[in-house]
Amino acid sequence: MNYAQVLNELETLVNETFSLWEHNRVGFQWRHYTWNHTLRVRAMGMELGRREGGDVKLLEVAGTLHDITKRYDGVILTDDNGQRILDRNGFWLNETLTPAGQNIVTGLYNKHNLQGKVHHESGAVITENILAMYDFEPAFVQAATAIVLAHLKPMSLTAEDFNLLYGNIENQILYDADTMDPNVGYTAFFRNIHIHAHFALQRSSFDLENYVRSLPRWINSKQEFVDKLLTESSREVAQARQDRNQQLFAQMVGELEDMEINRKYGLLGLIEYFVSETGDPHFLNQLNYLQTEWLPKRRQWVAEEEKNESARERAQAAVNRVNDFLTLLERESKGEI
Ligand SMILES: [Fe+2]
Ligand SMILES: [Fe+2]
Fold it and tell me: How far is CA 182 from CA 26, 40, 128, 252, in A?
């Protein structure tokens, strides 16, 4: 068995599966979100695996497959009083969305009657069946299946159940990586701005200054996620990401003092770019656009358009802040920091 080829096939399968639904947005997710999130979680999981002495290959395979049934999840179900309906483990139940197309994954989903199951449970069944088609050791398949099952954590767990679910370090690691990606660091900021802008534009309009000034509330609300992560390495990485977001806020609020320059060249301009592209934002494509077009164009403007020395210096500093942001965002997305 050629491992690189198998991994490639799994990636293609996951990507193909995500594209089978016609809808774009459900709650805080949109079409291109799930694939980009999968790549980032996998990269972070592998890095945490190296730091914690976990099986990196196992984390690579499980990371690739962990959200394979995520797009079946529709809106969260509520009862007559508007309360979210929980299953026995404290997971929110959601409506099941039927795909418009079919493939091997949807076939397995139907065959095993997975409708109504939350995506970590259905994903585990799919993972087990898909991996069994390849030449993996049975123990490897079982371990990958267990990781996918454990990537959402039941609300209250006895010590015994915790050990059952999270006895393997890889299960802890993927849970941590999956929790970190949407909640802490610049990757979480990317998600936050796109969610916020989408709903603000639906209601009325996006208010740049209000958005920036509201960031500390959002950042501080994530501290409990950091403190509850399961491994030491995850808590370290996540705390650094939290601190990075606090610094980002300080930079952004500072930029409000010099609106004209910073909306053209700085982090405020970056925010306005994200707000202009809320339809179905693709993380990797937006990152690439910002690095290869948005930023070079502004470097050119600094040289050509800013004749006044003070304005040129402020514009240059603003461009540098965006450059730093993009460098760190890319490193986070690769699981390096
Ligand atoms: Fe998930
Ligand atoms: Fe996930």
Answer: 15, 10, 26, 20
Tell me the CA–centroid distance for residue 213 and ligand 2, in Å: 29
Ligand 2 midpoint to CA 67 (Å): 5
Q: What are the C-alpha distances in Å from 14 to residues 3, 8, 65, 103, 130?
A: 16, 10, 7, 10, 11
Looking at the CA of 153, which ligand is closest?
1
Res. 76: pLDDT tops 90: no
Ranges in the chain annotated CATH 1.10.3210: 3-176
Residue 112's pLDDT is 98
- Expressed in angstroms and rounded, the spacing between residue 332 Cα and the centre of ligand 1 is 19
Distance 120 CA to ligand 2 centre (A): 9
Question: How would residue 295 be classed by pLDDT, with cut points 50, 70 and 90?
Answer: very high
Using one digit for the tens of pLDDT, what is the confidence trace for 191-214?
A: 999 999 999 999 999 999 999 999
For ligand 1, the distance from its centroid to the CA atom of residue 148, given in whole angstroms, is 8
Ligand (nearest to CA of 181): 2
What share of the chain in percent tops pLDDT 70? 100
The residue among 173, 287, 171 whose CA lies nearest residue 232 is 173
Q: How far is the CA of 318 from the centre of ligand 1 (A)?
A: 36
- Looking at all shown ligands, the one closest to residue 45's CA atom is 2
The rounded distance, in Å, linking the Cα atoms of 172 and 175 is 5
84 beta partners: 78
Name the class of domain 3-176.
Answer: mainly alpha
* Cα distance between residue 307 and residue 299, in whole Å: 14
DSSP of 176-235: HHHHHHHHSSHHHHHHHHHHHHHHHHHHS---HHHHHHHHHHHHHHTHHHHHT-SSHHHH
Distance (Å) from CA 327 to ligand 2 centroid: 23
* Alpha carbon distance 180, 185 (integer Å): 8
Q: What is the pTM of this model?
A: 0.95
110 CA distance to ligand 1 middle (Å) = 20
Instruction: Determine the residue type at 269.
Output: G
CA of 18 to the centre of ligand 1 (A): 13
